[in-house]
Amino acid sequence: MGERGGGEEDGVAKKVVKWPAIKPKKNLQVTHLKDIHLLTIPNFLSSVESRAFIKVAESIGFAHQGSLGPTRGEAYRDNHRIAVDDPVLASTIWESGLKKVFADIEIRGKVAVGLNPNIRFYRYNVGQRFGRHIDESVDLGDGSQTYYTLLIYLSGGSKGESGESLVGGETVFYGSRRGVVAEVAPVEGMALLHIHGDKCMLHEARNVSKGVKYIFRSDVAFA
C-alpha cells in the first residue's frame, strides 16, 4: 500500500476571488494512457486561461505544505498550496468540457455529477516534489463520492511568464510491482485524470529541476 497524500481539506481560503473567464471546450482530444482509468486532455485550458489562474492564485498567496513522511502514513511532500471552496468555479470547469468526457463513465453503478467544490492550487519550485502516494476517495456529504483526481497543469511544455521553461515535475504512476506504468510531463493547459480511492495507482510528482510548476486540482464526484 502506498503512502497517503495527507489532509486536502485544511487551510481553505475564505476571501472572495474573481476567477478568469473560461470558454466552453470543443473537440477535446482524450488520450487513454491506462485503459479507462488514466487519461489526458491536451489544451483543456488555453495559455491565456492557464496564466490567468496563476496570476489569481499568486494574488491570493500560497502557503507551504510539507511532510517528511512516512510518519503517520503520509508521503514525503514539499510544495506550496492554496485551497478554496467555490461551487461556481467547480461547476464552470465541469460544464466547460469535462461533463462530456465523463458522460459514459460509470463507477459502481454511479455516474459523474460534477467536481468537488474544494479547489486546490499547487506550486512546485525548483527542488520541490511530492513522494509516492495514493489519493483517497472523499464523501462530499451530499450523496456523492469522489472517484477521480483532476489535475490541470497551468505551466509546462513552454516558457512561462518568467521566460523560463519548466523541467522535471513529471507525474509518474506505478503498477503493482512498482514498475512505471505511465509518466506524464507537465504541459500548460493539459488535464490529467486518474481513478482514486481503493483502485488508485501509486504515483508521485517528481522533483522540479528548472522553472515553476503550477497545478489546478479537484476531484470528479459520482452519485
Automatic annotation (TrEMBL):
It is found in: Endoplasmic reticulum membrane. Keywords: Dioxygenase, Iron, Metal-binding, Oxidoreductase, Signal-anchor, Transmembrane. One of its GO terms (cellular component) is endoplasmic reticulum membrane. The keyword Transferase does not apply. Residues 114-223 form the Fe2OG dioxygenase domain. Its cofactor is L-ascorbate. Its main location: endoplasmic reticulum. The keyword Oxidoreductase applies. One of its GO terms (molecular function) is procollagen-proline 4-dioxygenase activity. It holds the Pfam family 2OG-FeII_Oxy_3. It catalyses: L-prolyl-[collagen] + 2-oxoglutarate + O2 = trans-4-hydroxy-L-prolyl-[collagen] + succinate + CO2. It is a single-pass type II membrane protein. InterPro entries: Oxoglu/Fe-dep_dioxygenase_dom, P4HA-like, Pro_4_hyd_alph, Pro_4_hyd_alph_FE2OG_OXY. This is Fe2OG dioxygenase domain-containing protein.
